[in-house]
Automatic annotation (TrEMBL):
This is Polyisoprenoid diphosphate/phosphate phosphohydrolase PLPP6. The gene is Plpp6. Pfam families: PAP2. The keyword Ribonucleoprotein does not apply. It is found in: Endoplasmic reticulum membrane; Nucleus inner membrane.
């Protein structure tokens, strides 16, 4: 016959024209994440909607940074004269170091760029901090929060303040424009789960006598 049948599309072209439901869902989630993060970045700059609150948000940023926590924990470990306190502080130091390594590895693997509205004026950064996923501050806040609640005897108001601090650190990351919403949510979940690893690998005079001999 004079008419010829249309040639079938290659399989890969069919896949592009008929994206999977999972692909559509992930693309939609990414779009919502970017939109919400942009709208919530109200302290991303001095001229932003809540630009006057930016200095306060940066103080909260420092409160969740790794360096103050590492230095403070190490100082407390050196000054402590109680074996029970040394055990807790040594495990907190171990938890903080494990958190830094894990977050750096995940950031290096995912390599998600920070939001475009972020001002790169963060407190003490390293090369991997140019990446956004996950939020190291959120991971650390959740980890420290769970650690403190389990190993320090605190009155109920103080326990509530510790939880609020962890949540505020996470929220401040989005408000400052440092991270997208999903960066913070995953960071909080990762930090919460990381505490279980620390508990499982708990360092004690029986399991790690060499470490305790140093102190």
């Amino acid at each position: 016959s004079g008419s010829s049948a249309a040639a079938p599309l290659p399989e890969e072209d069919c896949m592009k024209l008929n994206p999977s439901f999972l692909g559509i869902a992930l693309s939609s989630l990414l779009a919502i994440d970017l939109w919400a993060s942009k709208r919530l970045g109200v302290c991303a700059g001095e001229g932003s909607a809540w630009g006057s609150a930016r200095p306060l948000m940066k103080v909260i940023e420092v409160s969740g940074h790794g360096i103050p926590w590492l230095l403070g924990t190490f100082y407390g470990l050196c000054q402590s004269d109680s074996s029970a306190a040394r055990e807790v502080l040594l495990n907190l130091l171990f938890a903080l170091l494990l958190d830094l390594v894990l977050v750096a590895v995940v950031k290096g693997l995912v390599k998600r760029r920070r939001p475009t509205h972020n001002k790169m004026d963060m407190f003490v950064t390293i090369s991997v901090d140019k990446y956004s996923f996950p939020s190291g501050h959120a991971t650390r806040a959740a980890l420290v929060c769970r650690f403190v609640l389990h190993h320090l005897v605190l009155a109920v108001p103080l326990r509530v303040l510790v939880v609020l601090w962890a949540l505020i650190v996470g929220i401040s990351r989005v408000m400052l424009g440092r991270h997208n919403v999903t960066d913070v949510l995953f960071g909080l979940l990762l930090g919460y789960a990381l505490y279980s690893v620390v508990e499982y690998c708990w360092l004690s005079p029986l399991s790690a006598p060499a470490l305790f001999a140093l102190w």
